[in-house]
Amino acid sequence: MGVAETDASTFWQPIDQYVAPVPDKIGTSDVAHVEALTDAMRLVDDKHGGGACRDAIAAQVRWSQQLLTTQMAEVTRKRLLIALADLHVVAGWSSFDLGMHTVAASYFKRALDLSRAGDNWALTATVLYTMARLHLHIGMPGVGLRFLQLGQIAAQSSGSPFMVSLICVNEAWAHAMMDNRRQMEQSLVRAADELHAADDNQPRRWPRFYGQGELHAMTGTAQSALPSADDALLDSARQNLEHSFTERGDEHPRSSALALPILALTDLRLGNIDAGLDRAGRALSAARQINSARIVDRLTPLANHLGAVATTGALDIQAGINALQGAS
Questions:
Q1: With contact defined as beta carbons under 8 Å apart, do 303 and 318 qualify?
Q2: How far apart are alpha carbons 169 and 185 in whole angstroms?
Q3: Rounded to an integer, what distance in angstroms lies between the CA atom of residue 38 and that of residue 48?
Q4: Which candidate, 114, 153, 147, places its Cα nearest to that of 128?
Q5: 253 upstream amide cis, omega within 30 of 0
């Protein structure tokens, strides 16, 4: 059989844009299917970035939300509400990761409504945390802090010290961005205390990923974000970020890729030029491998500082960052 030459437009257009029908009646096994797909998509998003799975997750949202129109027992309906809320969180997070901030906010808003309808405090706190992270990323720490304060109420209502700690360490980041050192330090102390008091054997679905590695990473991120940080605080930030890589290992490549530019910049600010350039090169390499606009955005402060270092190696990495950002 011969192969004819064809234009790419012959194949890139979808064959159909229909949404498959849902059953007239569902049970817990149908909801478990949604939960399993959500977990699988979350893992792909975490490992490969939002660009690897966002559209697949959005398609799953379009199909799954139809399940609300079917017949089911009340216990199934409540579980479905929670499952759909979690699916919307993953859809929003992958959209956020691609820089689709308005779309992400819409998914998070729907997730918030669903989590409240499902009466799940831990998931409600998670949604408010994601909304806060979006605003911290785009440079609106005051708005982000307000979402975190609401999230703190939900976290405490959930009875999960893991969730309370997660909210606290992100509150510290918001305070740091606004140069509120005392509030930042208070939030970091409470975050560490809450995590220390948490029971690792406690069953939890949210926040599933949070532990010592994330606490170290976010502590270092907050400390390095303080505009008035002195060398002692920056050195503490460096140590916390280094600990985060030891704690996490290779389990969360995107999280590590997000922390690398901050660690590289912290090294450079401390005058550790060789270590800073080595980590800056690794940060650029990681950004090329993971389909995440957030990682690319994180490179901007690093690129600006590399220009001040002005060695050949620094300028080469800066050029690589500029090329990557220009292509994204």
A1: yes
A2: 10
A3: 15
A4: 147
A5: no
d(CA 251, CA 245): 10
Contact 231, 211 (CB under 8 A): no
Torsion of CA 293, 296, 301, 303, to 10 degrees: -150
For the stretch 7-31, pLDDT in tens is 666 677 777 777 888 999 999 999 9
pLDDT digits (tens, 9 = 90+) for 187-224: 999 999 999 999 877 778 888 889 999 999 999 999 99
Residue 71 β-bridge partners = 25
pLDDT tens across 153-198, in order?
999 999 999 999 999 999 999 999 999 999 999 999 999 999 999 9
Where does the chain show beta strands of DSSP type E? none
| Averaged pLDDT score across all residues of the chain | 94
- The amino acid sitting at 98 is L
Say which DSSP state 201 is in: T
User: For residue 327, with 0-12 CB atoms within 10 Å meaning exposed, 13-18 middle and 19 or more buried, which class applies?
Assistant: exposed
How far, in Å, CA of 152 to CA of 164, rounded? Answer: 6
Whether the Cβ atoms of residue 247 and residue 213 lie closer than 8 Å to each other: yes
CA–CA gap between residue 267 and residue 110 (Å, rounded): 40
Contact between residue 79 and residue 32 where contact means Cβ atoms under 8 Å apart: no
- 25: β partners: 71
Name the residue type at position 133: R
